[in-house]
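Lecture notes, unit on protein representations.

Consider one protein chain, 263 amino acids long.
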Amino acid sequence: MSRRTEPFAPRRPVPGRGLSSNGVTPTTTTGPPLLSLQGVWAGYGETTVLRGVDLEVAPGSVVALLGPNGAGKTTLLRVASGVLQPRRGRLLTGGRDVTGAAPEVLAAEGLCQVPEGRSIFPSLTVRENLILQSFPGREKEGIALATEAFPILGERLSQLAGTMSGGQQQMLALARAYIRRPPLVLLDEVSMGLAPIVVDEIYAFLTKLVEQGSALLLVEQYVDRVLALADHVYLLQKGSVSWTGPAGDLDQSEVLGSYLGAQ
């Protein structure tokens, strides 16, 4: 299958968002991509994982990042969030070169990452976790937004987060994205290990995020689900982009059956 590299735009009419450091979201619907990786090489120690990766996330879009285990998907998200610095290439947000910026700098500008696993404080209560996720001085509003998104959290406010079910812990982790209303959310296998009914709730939440204007860069094991939500797809193989194009152009029988099973 041939590689496609033409620019793309979201299929749905949602407001575009530029990264902002003050919690106020610009209303412009045009402008540079929220996130760009340009010729990125990255890895760990002497091991190279990403090899010359180019990737873009447009305002208001949903981008799916697919590939077999070990292809470099999580490494790409770590580079995009500033956790891992690229060896070569550039990272841009809103057209501005931020290569080398620390994770907290990118987070303050409006990038929210929900990594694989439960990114919560298990020894704190649900309420305390939500307070930490909220903007300073707006904690009550943050708790209200979180319990609006996931009502079950409202019934667990006094419970230690680590004693909740895996699905409820993931909801707590995801609530940060609803509280902060970020322009861009990076999500790594957020439905891994969850029951199908919980996965339904997670995807309903992701749809709500998109409707409120957030762009998503999504690594996901449920290929059918993510393709139904995505505008654009990047396929990684051994650290390189082997195909990119609109989600509707992806031939699942040809690509996903053979490619995603490759090691």
